[in-house]
Every structure is written in C-alpha cells, then in structure tokens.
C-alpha cells in the first residue's frame, strides 16, 4: 500500500517536472523568436537609415554636378554623410544607436534643405551676374565696333582734310631770260644769251589750307640730269628726299598767289639741250613740272 502511494507521488512529481520543462522550452523558444524578430527589425531599421543617408548623398552629388563651380559647403556636407554611412554599416545595431542616427538623419535633411536653398540662391545670383556680364560684354563689343568705326571715319576725314588742305598750282611757267644793262629782262631761247631762268607759278586759292609762311622747293635739271644751283637736300617724315636748286618762301593767305623766283647760271654759260624744272611743296609732293630747250 505504501509502495503504491510512493509510486503515485513520483508520477506526480515527474509530471510536474515535465510541465516545468515544457514551459521552459516554450519560454526559451519564445525568447529566441523575439530575439530573432528584434534582430531582424534592427537590421531593417539600420538598412532604412543607410538608405536615407544614401538618398541624401545622391542629392548632394546631383547638386554638386549641377553647380557651375565647386561648392565647398556641398562637398563637405556630402563627405560627412559618406562618413555616417560607413559608421552605420559597421556598427552593431541597437535601439539607442539607431535612434541617434535617425535623429541625425532628420537634422541632415533640414541642413540639406537650407543648404540647397542657399546654393540655389547663389546659382540664381550667379546666373544674373553672368547675364549682366554678357550684356555688358555685348555693349562693350558694340561700343568697340562704334569706336573703331569712328577711328576709321576720323582717319579718313583726316586724310581728306590733309589732301584737301594741300596747296596746288594753277599756273606754272619757266622762261630763259637775258638781263639788259637797264635791268630789263627779255626772253631768249639761246643758251649763250641766257643769264638766268625765271620760274613763275600761281598758288591756287584754298579756304581750308592753313595760312602762314610756306616753303616750296625748285629743282632744275640740266641736259645731263644734274641739279643746277647749290644742290641742297631735303627729306620728309616718310623717308623720301630730293636734291633741289633753291627754296622759295612766301606767305599764303588762302587766296590765289603769284610767286616768281630765279635760278642763276652756273660758272660759264648754260648748256644747250633740254631742261626740266620741278616744284615741290614743304612735304616734298611734286606740284608741277615744266620742260624747255635752249639752243
């Protein structure tokens, strides 16, 4: 009887132990499943944080590419986000750390919005400056073209005025003369009777020419082509030069002016043959040529 009672007690104890063991197993499995679920949730949350950070980084990359010039603030912000991404990927996920990074993502998003607004404002400002610069450049080009046109016109006008103000001859004559004892000069065509050459010309009127003292240069060439007289030399600014027989000075008042001068004979008599007389102005421009023959 006592033995039967003892066996029943053992069975009860064994049953209780079985129930406790089963409960322990169920509890352990439940804890494991909760842990697995928590780990999966943390991993998923971690991936979402990385995804948000990558999205922010991509937006900064796009903003940097669209910026005409490298923006140091954008580059710095982008590089900081890249560091956060590396940190999140390498960290051991837990609720506290992920919450911190979640808050940081929110801060970074607000920072991105402010920074992109600032960059957009700078971009618009730069675009306006570029447009104003281009407009100014166009105006400068127009002004340059206009100034070049004025220079050309002024140069042409100066050339026209210079040409228009140059003196010219309306008459030019050369006469071989003999001087009588009374001082009277008579024309001759004989070389042996010629004492001098009388060279006369009329300076035409010119209202735009500058009035004042003027010098013309007379060049007389004998039959051999030699210059009669003292044979002075004269050069101009462009490098041209002449050898002339005599300088004739007169005062010009913009009106028709008759001028005469004389070239005396050289040692001995004048030679027979063909002579040429040239008259040049003070810039060595040839104004007139006359030819004659002594017999």
Model description:
- This protein has 295 residues and is an alpha+beta fold.
- The chain is built from 3 helices and 10 strands.
- It has helices spanning 2-66, 72-90, 95-165; strands at 169-179, 185-187, 196-203, 212-221, 232-235, 241-244, 246-252, 257-264, 273-280, 286-294.
- The strands form 3 sheets. It has a 4-stranded antiparallel sheet with strand order 2-1-3-8, with no helix packed on it. The chain has a 4-stranded antiparallel sheet with strand order 7-4-9-10, with no helix packed on it.
- Strand 1 (169-179) and strand 2 form a beta hairpin.
- Helix 1 (2-66) runs parallel beside helix 3 (95-165).
- The longest helix is centred in the middle third of the chain and has 71 residues, at 95-165.
- The protein starts with a helix and ends with a strand.
- The mean pLDDT is 76.
- Taking pLDDT < 50 over at least 5 consecutive residues as the criterion, the unreliable ranges are none
Gap between N and C termini: 193 Å
**Number of DSSP strands?**
10
Radius of gyration: 58 Å
Give a short account of the largest sheet: 4 strands, antiparallel
Strand order of the largest sheet: 2-1-3-8
Helix percentage range = 40-55%
**H/E element order:** HHHEEEEEEEEEE
Based on secondary structure, the structural category is alpha+beta
Approximately what portion of the residues adopt beta-strand conformation? 15-25%
Figure out the total of helices. Answer: 3
- On the 0 to 100 scale, the average pLDDT is 76
| Principal-axes shape call | rod-shaped
Task: Spell out the blueprint of helices and strands.
Elements (H helix, E strand, L loop, with lengths): L1 H65 L5 H19 L4 H71 L3 E11 L5 E3 L8 E8 L8 E10 L10 E4 L5 E4 L1 E7 L4 E8 L8 E8 L5 E9 L1
Antiparallel strand pairs: 1-2, 1-3, 3-8, 4-7, 4-9, 5-6, 9-10
Helix pairs in contact: 1-2, 1-3, 2-3
């Amino acid at each position: 009887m006592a033995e039967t009672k003892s066996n029943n007690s053992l069975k009860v104890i064994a049953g209780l132990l079985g129930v406790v063991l089963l409960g322990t197993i169920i509890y352990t499995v439940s804890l494991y499943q909760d842990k697995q679920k928590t780990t999966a949730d943390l991993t998923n949350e971690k991936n979402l944080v990385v995804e948000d950070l990558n999205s922010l980084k991509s937006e900064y990359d796009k903003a940097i590419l669209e910026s005409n010039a490298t923006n140091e603030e954008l580059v710095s912000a982008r590089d900081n986000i890249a560091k956060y991404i590396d940190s999140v990927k390498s960290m051991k996920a837990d609720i506290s750390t992920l919450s911190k990074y979640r808050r940081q993502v929110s801060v970074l998003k607000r920072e991105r919005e402010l920074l992109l607004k600032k960059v957009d404002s700078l971009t618009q400002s730069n675009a306006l400056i570029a447009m104003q610069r281009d407009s100014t450049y166009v105006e400068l080009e127009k002004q340059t073209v206009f100034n070049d046109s004025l220079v050309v016109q002024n140069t042409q006008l100066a050339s026209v005025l210079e040409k228009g103000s140059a003196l010219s001859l309306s008459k030019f004559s050369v006469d071989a003369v003999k001087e009588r004892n009374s001082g009277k000069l008579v024309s001759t065509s004989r070389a042996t009777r010629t004492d001098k050459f009388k060279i006369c010309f009329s300076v035409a009127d010119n209202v735009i020419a500058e009035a004042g003292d003027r010098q013309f240069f007379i060049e007389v060439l004998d039959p051999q082509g030699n210059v009669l007289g003292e044979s002075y030399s004269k050069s101009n600014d462009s490098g041209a030069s002449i050898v002339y027989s005599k300088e004739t000075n007169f005062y010009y008042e913009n009106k028709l002016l008759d001028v005469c001068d004389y070239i005396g004979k050289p040692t001995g008599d004048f030679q027979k043959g063909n002579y040429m007389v040239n008259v040049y102005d003070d810039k060595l421009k040839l104004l007139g040529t006359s030819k004659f023959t002594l017999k």
